[in-house]
Design a protein that fits this description.
Length: 243
């Protein structure tokens, strides 16, 4: 694959690419709904996020809702599935914005990355990081670099020995490293995430089991040299006493 050949020029990145299956970017429909899901999933584990997604879809008979359906949903109903006040408001903001601005999937797919970021960050509750996730995972853009993503920061700092203490300097170094990955920085981020989330743990050494009764020796256990020497000394003493 072309992106692998390009990224593999970075020897450090190549090491973690070789540990994973090739990533493929997909383009999705219903970008508005994906953005709502992204908001609901923030700061949640994958398992918990899936629970919220299912509860959300259940509000609409198990079918993916259109923006107009979500916008017509009472705030209290969204709170009722466990969303916080802020997330419930942000979800409604997203859908109202898509309706008012008449945003379509087709239009978003034809816009540049910067134009998509400029448009969607106008929505209250939607930041640059959230839109970058949309670009990567919904619009299938190949050259997005999520410099503010905590997972990417941790992976790059570990792989390239970057000191994370100074955040500004850290981001400057991250951007410098990522330049050589362009135009496939999205793929690089995917491999960095995959490496960070699936790094092999150290294998623990097997612990020898103690006999159930400490006083009982194993049949295979042989007396130590110290014990043999002690027995010999005791025999000599007994022989001396006998004389």
């Amino acid at each position: 694959m072309q992106h692998i050949d390009h990224l593999a020029r970075d020897k450090k990145l190549k090491k973690i690419i070789d540990l994973q299956q090739p990533h493929v970017l997909n383009k999705r429909d219903n970008i508005c709904l994906y953005l709502c899901y992204s908001i609901m999933s923030q700061q949640l584990s994958t398992r918990v996020a899936e629970v919220f997604h299912q509860r959300f879809v259940n509000l609409y008979g198990g079918q993916e809702p259109a923006p107009s359906q979500i916008a017509a949903t009472p705030f209290e109903t969204l709170r009722g599935i466990g969303l916080s006040n802020a997330k419930a408001n942000y979800v409604l903001n997203v859908c109202r914005f898509f309706i008012e601005e008449k945003i379509t999937d087709e239009a978003l797919h034809t816009m540049s990355d910067d134009d998509v970021i400029g448009l969607l960050t106008r929505i209250k509750g939607v930041g640059r990081w959230t839109v970058e996730m949309v670009l990567m995972f919904a619009l299938g853009r190949e050259d997005v670099f999520a410099v503010d993503d905590l997972g990417i920061q941790q992976a790059i700092c570990k792989l390239y020995k970057i000191d994370p203490a100074d955040k500004r300097a850290m981001k400057e170094q991250m951007l410098a490293v990522s330049k050589k990955w362009s135009p496939y920085r999205t793929y690089a981020c995917r491999y960095l995430w995959g490496w960070k989330d699936n790094a092999p743990e150290a294998v623990a050494k097997p612990v020898k089991k103690e006999p159930k009764n400490p006083k009982q020796k194993s049949k295979k256990e042989k007396p130590s040299k110290v014990k043999k020497a002690t027995k010999k000394t005791a025999k000599k003493r007994n022989a001396t006493k006998a004389k």
